[in-house]
Amino acid sequence: MTSRGAPLTRRSVRWLDQRTASAPLLRKALRYLFPDHWSFLLGEVALYAFVVLVATGIYLTFFFVDSTKEVVYHGGYAPLYGQRVSEAYASVVHLSLFVRAGLLIRQTHHWAANVFIAAIVLHLFRIFFTGAYRKPRELTYWLGVTMLTLALLEAYVGYSLVDDLMSGMGLAIGYSVGLAIPFVGENLMNWLFDGMFPGSEQLWPRMYIAHVLIFPVLIAVLLTLHLLLVAMRHHTQFRRTKAQTEHTIVGIPAWPGQTPRSLGLLIGTAGVLFLLGGLVQINPIWLWGPYHTYSSTNGAQPDWYLGWLIGGLRLVPSFDLTIAGYTLVPNPFWGGAAFPLVVFGFLYLWPWLERRFTGDQAFHNLLDRPRDAPVRTAIGIAMIGWVFLVFLAGASDRVDVTFGLAYVSQIWVYRVLVWVLPVLFGLIAWWVCRELQAGERVLGERHEAEAEARLARPL
Amino acid sequence: MPALPPNPGAELAALALLGLSSLAALGFILIYAFGASLPDETQLLGASMGLALLFLAAALIVVGLRLVPSEEVAEAYPPQEHPGEQQVIAELVDESGTRFTRRRLFKLGLLGAGGTLGLAVLTPAASFGPLFHVGDFLRTPWRRGRRLVDEHGVPYRAADIERNDFYLAFPEGVSDEEKEQMAASLVVIRLDPAQLDLPPDLKGYDAHGILAYSRICTHAGCAITLYRAPLFQPAEPKPALVCPCHYSTFDPATGGTVTFGPAGRNLPLLPVFVDSKGFLRAKGNFNGPVGPSWWGVRMWKAQP
Question: Does B46 share its domain with B145?
């Protein structure tokens, strides 16, 4: 058989296979099955937001200057004229106001970061409440949680790089939290910042290379492993019909069914992010002004994914842990370091904890519905409730301004509520799960009885 | 794959969406090329790019749902494990070590070599920044006799400091770079001397009710840029210096004690006096380390 005259597809496949011997693998990949459920798309959205972040981020690097050297601003933005600003800040103001499409790309990048982390968190909720992390998928889960921590650090560093007033305040707080770590804090921060806050001229190049190379490459590597593990074990599935079992996967093949859907989701995610980037203003840094250690502003709020930490920092009452006049643990450690350590410690340990208490060593390809595991659902809801209440407490100042509720009273109420309400949320979730289960049992019995009655009816 | 009948309606819809996507993309290019003077350039660019992508996405979704076969297929999950292969691997690993007689020692040797080499590779990272230099945290640019100046370097006179207002001050003669040091900046206020209730060790730190506190919050290092100066005493709460980051609230009348919020340490106070020409000058150094706390912070004193 000659390749002459054969259809183009066949010739291309043949050309590729002869040079790469990849036809068996490709054939398998094309028939790889994707079980269908809307919640399985959350992880995909995170992946696509990451793609948009990389693409827009590369564009931004062509304009950003990673230097905190102070210059007197002589650019075209009149309100800043003559002020002392860092080269980094000046470059972002210039990019935002005087580079064609610069503001669009920067705002899209910022929105994509917010959506990226939101999608990861929602994906995590889905994984948690359906028990998808159980054997044999613990590694996939731990990689995912690690990517969430990296994404938070990556976003924080990116937000700090701009060197506007807000980013400087955020960096000072991060520095203070690091400084508060007992036994190592002062040396750790001295080492990272190359001296006392605000650090030496080395700091910005360091943060920059972390933001554009180290963290993104780490995330990309873990992402690859994460997806590889998903593919090797195949996706989990809900039991929608009798055909879906622990041993049989039912889904739409990658080609042709899934490909246009996933491509559509990728491009749709990018589309929504560009609409947000163009139409919904985010972080107008030329209004905030440059950062100096001696300046700050009232009513500042971080991006949403740091809201739980500002809440944690604000809620802790006034005390440093001291023993006979010796400071052991300064205050910011509790809200800024211990709190996230507890939350992430819980996330990392959970698969192990659950196995420990349920004794469940089995293989799981079928997902639970949240009601199928009332205790897990209750614990998850309680944890989310806890973190969310602390998050809300972080916005107390805005509530004070908007609704006139006194800040101090709010903080006192939250200091109690964050310990009481999560327990209540958990109990309610447990009760709802049990009721749903009972309802299903009753319904099942009724269907059975009706079927029996139909059979028993005389013809 | 099952042959499905054509679906001209869906095909037409997908084509229309592709056309719209092209139009929006063209729009983006035109706005970029000719829209420099448009006031809403960013919005138009974002809308056209976003719509171009969304139309394309919609076309793909139509293709996925209506035009390509998307029937569900069943297939076996991969086997839970491969006992045969597992055994081969384990045997390969175990048998390769039959010539080693002192296995334990060898493992220890490998671990030692790997560990020390790892440590050696990491050592250059120590060049990142100074280690064990806590002294830097305590150094301040303040010394006895140094005048307090404003942002532009103009010295403050005691008469400049009015009640119910607050002032940013630096040591005279510092460079712009030195102004960024946490120990450089002050928040200066004037209280009625009758209101003052300084503890015994801070007696004489004020100059006729003028108080110069460190501007950096002892909680998380933000600048204290809020001053609550009650207009209707005693109906309103007392005067307070407040940090807007986490609302740590300090009472300036009692030596910077924390009255609310998370700060765990008093706000450091710089002793000041008024010289013969009426200028404000530092009388010494702060009564404690400036800025956010670290473990052991209470052991130390601020140094010139």
Answer: no
Three-class secondary structure of residue A69 per DSSP = coil
- The string of DSSP letters for A91-106 reads HHHHHHHHSTTHHHHH
In a domain, B117, yes or no: no
| DSSP 8-state assignment for residue B163 | T
| B63 and B140 inside one domain | no
Find residues 73-112 of chain A whose CB sits inside 8 Å of chain B: 84, 100-101, 103-104, 107-108
What pLDDT score was predicted for residue A2?
Answer: 47
Structure token pair of residue A148: 């969430």
Enter the ipTM: 0.93
CA distance A300 to chain B (A): 7
Enumerate residues 271 to 310 of chain A having a beta carbon within 8 A of any beta carbon in chain B: 271-279, 292-300, 310
A250–B contact, CB cutoff 8 A: yes
| B59 and B145 share one domain | no
Co-location of B292 and B167 in the same domain: yes
> Please, which residues have CB within 8 angstroms of residue A176's CB and are 6 or more apart in sequence?
A332, A336, B219, B220, B221, B292, B293
Q: Return the closest-CA partner of residue B49 out of B29, B34, B72.
A: B29
Q: How many domains does chain B have?
A: 2
B264 Cα to chain A: minimum distance (Å): 4
Domains of chain A: 1-30 (no CATH), 36-296+332-338 (1.20.810.10)
B175: domain CATH number is 2.102.10.10
Range of the domain at B32: 8-67
Minimum Cα–Cα distance from B80: chain A residue: A363
Q: What is the mean pLDDT, run by run of 10 residues, along chain B of 304 residues?
A: 82 97 98 90 96 98 92 93 96 89 92 97 92 84 96 96 95 94 96 93 95 97 94 85 96 96 96 97 95 88 74
